[in-house]
């Protein structure tokens, strides 16, 4: 069957906003296969369909892929080999998270652990910072910022564009030394 003849999934229903028990089929995907715009999938029960979204989004565990004409396919996050990063205390944890964030790595940040993909350069850095590392098999659901996660509720895309919502040309700076000055653009 050609892609054009396949049923199309054209939108994502966030986990918890649909009845997963009514899914026509399910796909279990690793993180890379859950960050797509257009791709052919075959569900575990044999149902073939075409994911055809307006923009690439990250599909989360429990999401539904709404099919044209009704019905949905459930998305499950597949366990994959990851590195669990833990710290000595909260301050150490914050430092480790900062170092990972500074490198724009996909990372899943929990209350007491961070999950990352295995990367020998990064794991060496983390060991040097005193982190405890352990190889685990787990679904990977990294924070959205690393990929410009698509906000499905509003339809806005938060990509690499960096804005402050104000004009730098006429800012008033206080330097804390009793001096101040204006920038004139």
Description:
- This protein has 185 residues and is mainly beta.
- Helices cover 12% and strands 37% of the residues.
- It has two helices and twelve strands, in the order βββββββαββαβββ.
Structural class: mainly beta
Order of helices and strands: EEEEEEEHEEHEEE
Largest sheet: 6 strands, mixed
What's the number of helices?
2
Cross-sheet strand order for the largest sheet: 2-6-5-1-4-3
**Distance N terminus to C terminus?**
61 Å
**Overall pLDDT:** 82
Helix content: 10-25%
* Shape, per Cα inertia axes: elongated
Total strand count, please?
12
**What proportion strand?**
35-45%
Low-confidence spans: pLDDT under 50, at least 5 residues? Answer: 145-185
The rounded Rg comes to: 22 Å
Summarize this entry quickly.
The protein is mainly beta and 185 residues long. The protein has helices at 90-102, 120-128, and strands at residues 8-13, 25-29, 35-42, 48-58, 64-67, 72-77, 79-86, 107-109, 114-116, 132-139, 172-174, 180-182.
Properties at a glance:
12 strands, six-stranded mixed β-sheet, 2 helices, four-stranded antiparallel β-sheet, mainly beta, disordered C terminus, 185 residues
Please describe the topology of this protein.
Layout: E1 8-13, E2 25-29, E3 35-42, E4 48-58, E5 64-67, E6 72-77, E7 79-86, H1 90-102, E8 107-109, E9 114-116, H2 120-128, E10 132-139, E11 172-174, E12 180-182
Parallel strand pairs: 1-4, 2-6
Antiparallel strand pairs: 1-5, 3-4, 5-6, 7-9, 7-10, 8-9, 11-12
């Amino acid at each position: 069957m050609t892609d054009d003849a396949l049923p199309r999934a054209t939108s994502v229903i966030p986990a918890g906003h649909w009845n997963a028990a009514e899914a026509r089929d399910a796909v279990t995907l690793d993180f890379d296969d859950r960050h797509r715009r257009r791709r052919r999938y075959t569900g575990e029960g044999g149902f073939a369909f075409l994911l055809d979204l307006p923009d690439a989004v990250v599909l989360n565990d429990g999401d539904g892929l709404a099919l044209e004409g009704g019905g949905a396919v459930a998305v499950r996050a597949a366990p994959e080999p990851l590195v669990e990063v833990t710290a000595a205390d909260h301050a150490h944890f914050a430092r480790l998270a900062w170092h990972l964030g500074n490198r724009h790595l996909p990372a899943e940040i929990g209350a007491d652990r961070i999950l990352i993909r295995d990367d020998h350069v990064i794991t060496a850095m983390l060991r040097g910072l005193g982190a405890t590392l352990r190889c685990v098999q787990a679904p990977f659901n990294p924070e959205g910022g690393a990929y410009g996660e698509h906000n499905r509720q509003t339809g806005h895309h938060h990509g690499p564009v960096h804005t402050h919502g104000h004009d730098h040309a006429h800012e008033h700076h206080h330097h804390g030394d009793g001096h101040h000055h204006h920038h004139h653009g």
